[in-house]
Amino acid sequence: MAMASQEGARGDDAWSEILASGGGGGGAHIRAVYVRRRAQEASRQRNADPRVGFAAGENRPSFAPIRRNSWNRSLSIRGRESIFFAPGTNIHPQQKPCGALKRPPKPCNRVKKTRGGPPDLRKEKAYFEEVDAFELIEESPSPKNFGTWTRGIEQNIIVHDLSAILERWKISKIARCATSGPLFDIMETPLVPSVLSNCSTDNYAGKGFKTPEKDRATRRTITSGYTSNSLKNISGETSIDASFSELKIKEEPTSIPSLSGEALTAFAQLLMVCGQSAPATLAEVLSAYCKLGSIVKLGEGTYGEVYRAGSTICKVVPFDGNSLVNGETQKKSEEELEEALLCLTLNNLRADRGDKGKEYSCNGFIETKDFWVCQGPYEPSLVSAWEDWDAKNGSENDHPNDFAKDQCYIIFVQADGGRDLEKFSLLDYNEARSLLLQVTATLAVAESACEFEHRDLHWGNILLARDEMPDKNRTMTVTLQGKKICARTFGLSVSIIDFTLSRINTGDAVLFFDLSKDPDLFKGPKGDRQAETYRKMKKITKEYWEESFPQTNVAWLIYLVDIVLQKKYETCTTKEEKELRSFKRRLSSCGSARDCLGDPIFSDMLSEEEEDVWPSAMPLL
Ligand SMILES: Nc1ncnc2c1ncn2[C@@H]1O[C@H](COP(=O)(O)OP(=O)(O)OP(=O)(O)O)[C@@H](O)[C@H]1O
To answer: In this predicted structure, what is the pLDDT of residue 156?
Structure first.
């Protein structure tokens, strides 16, 4: 409650802050910032930039600095983690310890080993060989054979076998943790192929997964519903008791010499997800999407450079190298693999994927069309696209020629989502509501289907596109618990991107980013909307980042209303501004995006019927 009233008070301030800043006259006091981890040099240059106050490519004043502010973050933190659990465990909501902000001790690895020796991975090896034999074919429906490629590949969508990829990842991770120390938690992990069917793609989409109940004090998994297929397969032991998951595998690399041969490395798995047997060059991949000379850089992030190649978007992210990139330690294969898993899980929510009658569907997350692993020098056409963008926008990233000649990259091939909200000008109240409704509905579906929380939904991570032929009656449909809901879009399409900090429950694993390893994230400027939202998340989660807290989605929706108020469309009336502000106040009492969807601000935009076009009888605003 305290937080709600505080937020309400801040909300009342939003408009007066804008007016105080010049009411659209170029003041740059309100800072909506990105979380970027840049070298201090870049930050100094940015602060000296005279163009602050005008949005790129627009001649109207903006309330945002063109160069984004950031605050320092540790250079070598690595926060992506995962927890496994068996399907069938109890699925009650977690009880939070009242007022206890102290973080529990870090859970240790929980694979049971054979007494006095290493885990026996023979069965997993046999399984692996079997699975690999057919999956290499299954996962490579696209002809990733450069010699025979033809242009036009960008229209193809590669279908990935998510459940098989997840299982392979899980097995390898268990094996790796046995040799490389405490990388992750395993709560309960069925490891035989027969259990895999429980998390098949189709089942997944209809389930609405919940994290199983855990005893917070001991971090022990509740074992009811546990099957005999469990970890005894790798431990070699026949009896399983409730405490097995607390056992820690000590590092015994010398006693398990063959492990690396039995479980695939994260790099090898990444190649498999990409349907490749070896890395390609950047030129080979990109030339399949367009003529290399036509590539244009669209944007940049902490790690990635984003280019348009033909009709698709390619996010090129260096990984596994030793050099710092943009002042940051490079991501590891394992992190890229987990981000790929997250993207695939969200892809499965798309209405056009898999089962037609799924319980949950939405198209509001950017579609990931494919992934590629590349290695070699940075492609010269990308370098010139990078330099063109730098000349116009001033890059905060390192020049790509700084990369080693044998640098590895992953390319996330995505649909084109349009312009990010930072650079997009909303036209009117209906567009503003359409933005808010689409983001709310998308989060509501993913939150209900797979406990998804974005956790970093700043205005650079929301993309918008306007219909070329505006149709005021156009709708989009989401499915929430089997119910189809039509929402008027007023000609806007909204896509959510960048799942680096996101949490998701894939059905048998929770993927999350441990933000407690990144304390500087919470040290952003006081009063800054984005920085305050990270702090709000910290308060909501009490730093149990692995747990499900749908209220973090609400925190970002409140941020989004602030941004809409901040950016202000030209036609904004006092009445509309009041509506938005009272919507924001009502959001403060919501516990999830799903709750927010029921807000009266959306009621005339929603219908339960499935219609391509809004019923003509509906009154238009
Ligand atoms: N699919 C897409 N369609 C259009 N533009 C995109 C797309 N993906 C990314 N962009 C542009 O590139 C920018 C950076 O992308 P993104 O946020 O994915 O990079 P990142 O490295 O993950 O950034 P961050 O620093 O937030 O982690 C976005 O703000 C947007 O302007």
So the answer is: 54
Distance (angstroms) between ligand 1 centre and the Cα of 209 equals: 28
3-state secondary structure of 254: helix
Residue 508 has a pLDDT of 74
Neighbouring CB atoms inside 10 A of 65's CB total 21
User: 410 near 336, Cβ under 8 Å?
Assistant: yes
Q: How much is the average pLDDT of 183-197?
A: 30
Catalytic residue among 161, 456, 498, 508: 456
Q: Is 296 helix (H, G, I), strand (E, B) or coil?
A: strand
The response to whether residue 460 sits with its C-beta less than 6 Å from ligand 1 reads yes
Contact 113, 228 (CB under 8 A): no
- Residues 205 and 200: their CA atoms lie apart, in Å, by 9
Q: What are phi and psi of 486, to 5 degrees?
A: -95, 135
Does the Cβ of 497 fall within 6 Å of ligand 1? yes
Q: Helix, strand, coil: what percent of the chain each, to 5? A: 35, 15, 50
Domain residue extents for the chain: 2-70+420-496+514-607, 80-273, 282-419
Only one residue has tokens 């590895």, namely 408
The pLDDT of residue 100 is: 37
Work out which ligand 1 atom sits closest to the CA atom of 304. Answer: 21
For residue 315, is pLDDT > 60?
Answer: yes
Whether pLDDT at 26 is above 90: no
If pLDDT is split at 50, 70 and 90, which confidence band does 295 have? very high
Tens of pLDDT, residue by residue over 226-253, are: 222 222 222 223 222 222 222 222 223 3
User: What would the mean pLDDT of 37-66 be, rounded to a whole number?
Assistant: 36
DSSP, collapsed to helix, strand or coil, labels residue 370 as strand
ipTM field: 0.97
Query: How many angstroms separate the CA atoms of 114 and 514, rounded?
Result: 31
Please report the DSSP string for 257-289 in residue order: TTHHHHS--HHHHHHHHTT-SS-B-HHHHHTTT
Percent of the chain with pLDDT over 70: 57
Task: Please give the pLDDT value at position 104.
Answer: 35
Judged by DSSP in three states, 372 sits in strand
Q: What is the pTM of this model?
A: 0.69
pLDDT at 550 over 80: yes
From ligand 1's centre to the CA of 301, what distance in Å?
Answer: 6
CATH class name, domain 282-419: alpha beta
SS (H, E, C) 398-452: CCHHHCCCCCEEEEEEEECCCEECCCCCCCCHHHHHHHHHHHHHHHHHHHHHHCC
Q: Count other Cβ atoms within 10 Å, centred on residue 616.
A: 7
CATH class of 2-70+420-496+514-607: mainly alpha
Contact 251, 154 (CB under 8 A): no
Residue 456 among the catalytic residues: yes
Q: 53, 62 in Cβ contact below 8 A?
A: yes
